[in-house]
Amino acid sequence: MKNIALVMGGFSGEHDISIGSGNQVYEALDKEKYNVRKIVVDREGWYCPNDDGSRTPVDKNDFTLDGMHFDLAFIIIHGNPGENGVLQGYFDMLGIPYTTCDFYTSALTFNKGFCNPVVKSFGIVKVAESVLLYHMPECIDGRLSQLRYPLFVKPAAGGSSVATTKVKTPEELLPAIQLAFGEDKEVLVEECINGREFDCGVFRNAEGRKIVFPITEIIPKGGHEFFDYEAKYQGFSNEVTPAQCPDRIAQHIQEVSSQLYDLLGCAGIVRFDYIHDMDADTLYFLEVNTIPGQSAESIVPKQAKAMGISPAELYEMSIQAALAPRK
User: Fold this and answer.
1) What average pLDDT does range 185-197 have in this prediction?
2) What share of the chain is helix, strand, coil (3-state, %, to 5)?
3) Angle, nearest 10°, between helix axes 103-110 and 112-122?
4) Which of 190, 234, 272, 319 has its CA 20 to 30 A from that of 327?
5) CATH number at residue 22
6) Do 114 and 258 fall into the same domain?
7) How far is CA 122 from CA 72, 115, 173, 252, 254, in A?
8) Quick one: 141 and 200 in the same domain?
9) How far is CA 45 from CA 11, 55, 60, 61, 123, in A?
10) Do the beta carbons of residue 82 and residue 291 sit within 8 Å?
11) Alpha-carbon span 237 to 297, nearest angstrom
12) Residues 134 and 151 in one domain
């Protein structure tokens, strides 16, 4: 029986979302086939929560639990340190396989300011104009003054739209930047593209066959202008899977997602997010999520379900792909 470490939590504002995702994965995994242990990572320490409320600490020197070694790390941490390559590098040094992209791809894709120019260089999808900030500006000048409103201000290495603001006037810009710097040391200021938002999951199984999921359209509601934190997790959005759009648009999004998966060197379950400018009939890349949510509200499990793949089957495929020799 394989020992599986289900690694959840993390240091970012997505900690609780990660716990929710981890609990859903735990419920779906076959306990008769795998010895699954929840491993919570937070700033107070790494531990396995026990049924009696106690905590068994993880020995970070070799990632063991009371002397038990793990055969696989199923990483379900959104944000730091699970999605930015830190844990991947740690597990690489220990020789423990894991279910996500490798260190290099995780580090690149986690920072939107670094990833966007790389995606743009591929020439297969548009990317909105943006400015990456490394410190809080004193005023709006230089490159910031050349951007067209409305703008999105977001942590460069964040997720779940935490500390993300849609800015419509210059007066709103500096407070939004300050808010984002409270979440991350780098901030991305990006031109807003008006259009319909679509997401597409991609996965490569143990046999090397790539699975491109049906696309989902995100439709915010209840006064939410974009897919912010409340829209994501408090029911202020409609998520339509498969998306009700022309077949050519859906196929194009799936084709671009499939290409990006390979060009960025992805592994495991990955989700790509886009805005389609319907007036210009142009697709814009938003971001890539290398550890997409797996909670009850999450998009990829719904896309898999639309293909007839249950959560249990999806996570089993993820484990088998991670245990297969990497090519």
Assistant:
1) 92
2) 30, 30, 40
3) 100
4) 272
5) 3.40.50.20
6) yes
7) 33, 11, 31, 15, 16
8) no
9) 11, 10, 10, 13, 43
10) yes
11) 11
12) yes
- Taking only the tens place, the pLDDT of each residue in 24-63 is 999 999 999 999 999 999 988 999 999 898 999 999 999 9
Closest by Cα among 183, 189, 188, 185 to 170 = 189
Residue pointed to by tokens 């997010």: 273
In terms of residue numbers, what domain contains 68?
2-98
Q: How far apart are CA 249 and CA 311, in angstroms?
A: 27
Q: Nearest to residue 295, comparing CAs of 19, 20, 12, 8?
A: 20
Q: Among 214, 213, 233, 215, which residue's Cα sits nearest to residue 224?
A: 233
Q: Indicate the number of domains in the chain.
A: 3
- Which run of H or E residues covers position 23? helix 15-28
Statement to judge: residues 235 and 280 lie in one domain: yes
pLDDT confidence of residue 157: 78
Q: What is the spatial distance between Cα 9 and Cα 79, in angstroms, rounded to a whole number?
A: 9
